[in-house]
Amino acid sequence: MCRGVTGAVGQQGRHDGTFPQMGQPRIWGSKREDRLPLPGRYSVRAERIGMTTRMIDRIEVAARDTVSLGIALSRRPIALEDLSATGEGRCEMSEDLGLATFRVWDEAGKALAVADFASSGGTHVYELERYVRELEPGTLRIRTAAHTRWSVASERPMEALPVQDLVEGGWVVRQDGGDRYFAPDAHVLLSDEFLDSHCMQLRARNESHPDLVGLAFRPIRMRSRRARIQGVLWLSRETGGLEWLEFGYLNLPGLAEEVRNEQIGGRVDFRNLPNGAWIVSRWYVRMPLVVEEGTTMDLRQLGGMIELRRPRLRGIAEEGGRVIAVRTGASGAWAYVDRGGVIAGRVARADSEDVMEPGGQVAIVGVGVVMDVDPDGRFGIAGLPDGVYRLAHLRPSLRGLDRDHVLADVPVRGGDTTTVRLRAAEPNAVLARACGLEEWEPETGVVHGYVTLGESGSAAAGVTVAAEWMEFSGRGLARLRATQRSVTAETNEMGAFRLCGIAADHTTVTVTATAEARAQEVSANLSLSRDEPVSAVSLRLPGPSF
After folding, report:
1. Count of CA atoms in the C-beta half-sphere (13 A) of 50
2. What is the pLDDT, as a whole number, of residue 116?
3. Strand ranges for 424-495 from DSSP E
4. Measuring CA to CA, how many Å separate 134 from each of 141, 312, 320?
5. What are the Cα distances from residue 110, in Å, to 70, 77, 107, 158, 218?
6. Which value, in Å, is the radius of gyration of the alpha carbons in the chain?
7. Which tens digit of pLDDT belongs to each residue from 364-390?
8. Torsion angle of alpha carbons 360, 365, 366, 371, nearest 10°?
9. What distance, in Å, lies between the first and last C-alpha atoms of the chain?
10. b vs e for 158-193, b when ≥16 Cβ sit within 10 Å of the residue's Cβ?
């Protein structure tokens, strides 16, 4: 049997266990083995994040020898309490600060070297989630969102584009239909190509994160109009491990540069797997949604009217993703699970602690997530990415009309449970808001729904929808008078309509959708009452779409 080099790296420098048989010389560790090509003289470099680095030279390995190594490393936290970041020029810093910056840089690079070494030993199976959503500027409330999930076997499930493409082509690229924004990962930041064009400095101590140390980066020069990035890579002060990266953009193209907002940028979070690999566990990029608005000013005394146009930030588009779970490729054992954030709470009436009517639900507005409320009024929504979510309570009697009636804004952070107490809105307040009224007229209701076309089921936009019913007045059969009432509306681009002010006292209502352009018509009969003042209906016009 050929012999090799065996050993382990640790604080005590010992390894207990049985080594496998080897067909040729090899270097073996507790998580990895590499075959040695030939007997000879070797050097072993031992690195561990947050500890000293040690090199063992001139290790002779004969064909049938076994060489055991015990390598002891001492702990070396990143101690920077007496240093402060200064300098305004091109990477200007004191000698001590330069050495300290290199120390932090070295620890970050060591983490990635360990990650590459560990990940090259095999793949993992990742369950991933990606989302696209629109946020409200300032509050970052989620307006709309869409999610997709999939699984992939890979060494690194999410990584940036090649650093040369990003440095030379810019971090924002203009394309047909909009601008495309790119984000870095740690491998990009710690590459030689990135270092050639960016300055690295220690970030001044952040009192909100005293256990972290920041490695700030910014472009050295801004001669071209290509988009650049600046930001901070945060590491653990105790271990040197990667925590997260936050960044913002410079020189954004077009109108985006004119609506500067500190919320435009992104974040990348890192996670250490049991085999030593560091992966991107979650990330997001926030991009501006800009519209140009015009204002006309009367300057006839100077020669006529003038139109002024200015950009406005109408929203923030966010694209992001996260690793939901990781399994080892060989054994299938769980290596990491991110259960996301949780919202848990209870719904009660607006004027008491009584439980709401049975069958209710809690919905996240704009996201499409709905959860049933139990008989005690309690609910729970799990597996949510980070964000500020808007909650609504859905009463069965209001038939989804309260879906957009926001009761609370709830911030969620992965791994945390946020507890909320919801006070359901009064039905009349929901009805008034849905119809754009300050107060709701008693004993009236709403009919809402969609109109679609033919077998395709596509939305029927611009279709006239009318509701007709009979109202009775007077006392006694001799004086009883019947009056026909009606309201009309037009479907929007989604084929949706809403008819308000309909009598709701056990009233039979005929709802008719008419496509005048094709002389098509379809109708349905509904009933409204005081207990159920809302009715929802879907109408399908015959014939092909138009």
Report:
1. 14
2. 60
3. 444-453, 458-459, 464-473, 481-490
4. 8, 15, 11
5. 20, 14, 5, 20, 22
6. 32
7. 999 989 999 999 999 999 999 999 999
8. -40
9. 80
10. bebeebeebbeebbbeeeeeeeebbbbbbbbbbbee
Would you list the DSSP string of 133-162?
A: EEE-TTT-BEEEEEEEEEEEEESSSS-PPP
Q: How far is Cα 282 from Cα 270, in angstroms, rounded to an integer?
A: 7
CA distance 121 to 114: 11
CB 71 within 8 A of CB 56: yes
Q: Are 424 and 405 in contact (CB under 8 A)?
A: no
Tokens of 325: 């779970």
- Residue 99 falls in which region: left (phi positive, over 0), alpha (psi -120 to 50) or beta: alpha
The C-alpha atoms of residue 65 and residue 26 are separated, in whole angstroms, by 11
Strand 417-423 versus strand 341-348 pairing type: parallel
Which residues on neighbouring strands pair with residue 391, listed in sequence order?
Answer: 364, 408
Query: Three-state DSSP class for 147?
Result: strand
CA neighbours closer than 13 Å in the CB half-sphere of residue 111: 27
Q: Do the Cβ atoms of 521 and 512 come closer than 8 Å? A: yes
Q: What is the spatial distance between Cα 105 and Cα 203, in angstroms, rounded to a whole number?
A: 12
- The partner residues of 315 in beta bridges, in order of sequence, read 289
**What are the tokens at 453?**
């076309």
Contact 36, 61 (CB under 8 A): yes
Model pLDDT for residues 197-256, shown as the tens digit of each residue: 888 888 766 677 788 888 899 998 766 778 999 999 998 888 778 899 999 999 998 888
Q: How many CB atoms lie within 10 A of CB 57?
A: 9
* Model pLDDT for residues 518-541, shown as the tens digit of each residue: 678 999 999 999 889 999 999 999
**What is the C-alpha separation between 226 and 251, in angstroms, rounded?**
6
Note whether 280 and 233 are within 8 A (CB): no
Q: Is the pTM of this model over 0.85?
A: no
- Cα separation, 342 vs 413, in Å, equals 8
Q: How would you classify residue 177: left for phi > 0, otherwise alpha for psi between -120 and 50, otherwise beta?
A: left
What's the CA gap between 28 and 68, in Å, rounded?
A: 10
Q: Please list, residue by residue across 502-540, b when 16 or more beta carbons sit within 10 angstroms of its beta carbon and e when fewer do.
A: bbbeebebebbbbbeeeebebeeebebeeeebbbebebe
Residues 535, 536, 542: CA angle, nearest 5 degrees:
130
Tokens 């920077």 correspond to 80
Report DSSP letters for 381-444, one per residue. EEEEPSEEEEEEEE-GGGTTTTTT---EEEEE-TT-EEEEEEEPPPHHHHHHHHTT-SSPPTTE
Q: Kindly report the CA angle at 289 between 258 and 262, in degrees rounded to 5?
A: 55
* DSSP E strands, 238-277: 242-250, 265-272
Q: Positive or negative CA dihedral for 114, 120, 124, 128?
A: positive
